[in-house]
Design a protein that fits this description.
The complex is a heterodimer of chains A (216) and B (194).
Chain A: H1 2-14, H2 16-37, H3 44-64, H4 69-73, H5 76-84, H6 88-116, H7 124-148, H8 154-181, H9 185-215
Helix pairs in contact in A: 1-6, 2-3, 2-6, 3-6, 3-7, 3-8, 6-7, 6-9, 7-8, 7-9, 8-9
Chain B: E1 2-13, E2 16-27, E3 31-35, H1 42-50, E4 57-62, E5 69-72, H2 84-91, H3 94-106, H4 122-134, E6 140-144, H5 152-167, E7 171-175, E8 185-188
Parallel strand pairs in B: 3-7, 3-8, 5-6, 6-7
Antiparallel strand pairs in B: 1-2, 1-4
Classes of the chains: A mainly alpha (216), B alpha/beta (194).
Chain lengths: 216, 194
């Protein structure tokens, strides 16, 4: 597994567009959206959490777009199959690297921009944790969509993964309310950690099976 | 030593039979040259042997559980946004990486080792893909059209490497429109007519 993580980290670090693009999209949305509503920051704290949900969805989708396409197109997936007979280690490493390289920085940017939008500074840690967990879930779901849609257009990926993202959005909304009103944050976060662990273990199996059907 | 055997394998796409009732064996120290016209199913047959694609009928039996296979398919499996050096460092380490760099020199790619692979010519990219296969220690080489895009000097180097590999007891399966300069069994899939 460490060799997979090392290889995927090296590949992603060389693809500037793949990791910098989503970060820039995040920054752009977080700056542009409040500006388009009201430059005086009136009631921006109420808007912030709506903005952050939309931003996370957009950036998670952009970040995972083409996650497996390149390896499929250049024949790396076939080589991987010959060595390992499945793609579980590859998929889990890839998602881990994408979350570390893109998901966590996005969560950091999101939490950082929460100050600019009137959220209390003391909530930084909580917002960062929630956004990181949400990204872990969303990256897994959109990776599944990406694996399904190889050679079939991004629309299939969106259609298949967006309904799965709805529970994540509902959970994130509940967690955000718990920060705003100081009610049940630990319980919601624990639930998100639990779901995150289960999804992170199971989704790579499903993605691995989807990739196998593509190379067959 | 027997490496693989195929029994009555057939493959069809949408009722269109690519090949049927193919039976053959692959032994260590032997080569198998699969030839045939465009669309006759050479690459598909290689993928069936490797277990990537399932045959419509028949079966492939592997006699070695820990068989090390090096495969060069139609797709080069090299990263166009990395340099040749980075591509090799991504794939190999230790002794194999040293072998890979030796091959880089032998194939005359050392002057482009720090350029992006995307900027290399088709032939240079093919050489890099071959290095990926040649630098690995393997029991069986499976090559799909390895001579396409190569200059004569490189093709000669490849032929002598393959001959040496067979003489050392390795197995070889290749598809090629160009008859290789090595002693191989031939499996002819014929020509597909429209």
């Amino acid at each position: 597994m460490p060799s997979f993580i090392k290889a995927e980290s090296f590949k992603l670090s060389k693809k500037l567009k793949s990791w910098l693009g989503p970060l820039l999209v995040m920054v752009l949305v977080l700056i542009a959206f409040p500006l388009s509503i009201d430059i005086s920051q009136y009631d921006l704290d109420k808007f912030y959490f709506s903005i952050i949900v939309v931003s996370l969805l957009m950036t998670a989708f952009v970040a995972t777009e083409g996650m497996f396409e390149e390896d499929f197109e250049d024949g790396s997936l076939e080589q991987e199959f010959l060595k390992e007979k499945d793609f579980y280690k590859l998929v889990i490493s890839k998602i881990f690297v994408y979350v570390c390289f893109i998901g966590i920085p996005i969560a950091f940017i999101g939490a950082l921009f929460s100050f600019a939008n009137g959220v209390a500074i003391g909530s930084f840690g909580k917002v960062f944790l929630l956004l990181s967990l949400s990204n872990l879930l969303l990256f897994n779901l959109f990776a599944f969509g990406n694996a399904l849609s190889i050679n079939k257009g991004a629309m299939l990926g969106v259609l298949s993964s967006l309904p799965l993202a709805l529970p994540v959005i509902i959970l994130l909304g509940r967690a955000i309310r718990s920060i705003q009103y100081g009610d049940g944050f630990v319980a919601v976060t624990t639930l998100m950690v639990g779901i995150g662990l289960i999804v992170s273990a199971i989704m790579p199996l499903i993605i691995s099976a989807a990739l196998k059907t593509h190379i067959d | 030593m027997k490496l693989f055997s195929a029994q009555n394998i057939a493959y069809s796409i949408n009722e269109n039979k690519l090949f049927h009732n193919l039976s053959f064996e692959i032994n260590s120290g032997e080569g198998l040259h699969i030839k045939g016209g465009n669309g006759s199913g050479k690459s598909t047959l290689l993928r069936i042997i490797l277990g990537i694609t399932s045959p419509s009928k028949g079966s492939i039996q592997s006699y070695e559980t820990d068989l090390k296979i090096s495969y060069l398919g139609h797709k080069n499996a090299i990263k166009s946004y990395l340099t040749p050096n980075e591509n090799l460092e991504l794939l190999f380490n230790g002794v194999e990486l040293n072998h890979a760099f030796e091959w880089l020199n032998k194939f005359g790619l050392s002057h482009v080792q720090d350029e992006l692979t995307a900027s290399l010519s088709f032939g240079q990219q093919k050489k890099l893909a071959l290095i990926r296969v040649l630098a690995q220690s393997s029991d069986l080489l499976v090559l799909d059209e390895p001579f396409v895009g190569l200059d004569q000097a490189t093709a000669d180097q490849l032929n002598s490497f393959l001959a040496q590999k067979i003489s050392q007891g390795g197995g070889l399966i290749l598809t090629s429109h160009i008859t290789p300069m090595i002693d191989c069994e031939v499996l002819d899939l014929g020509v597909k007519n429209a």
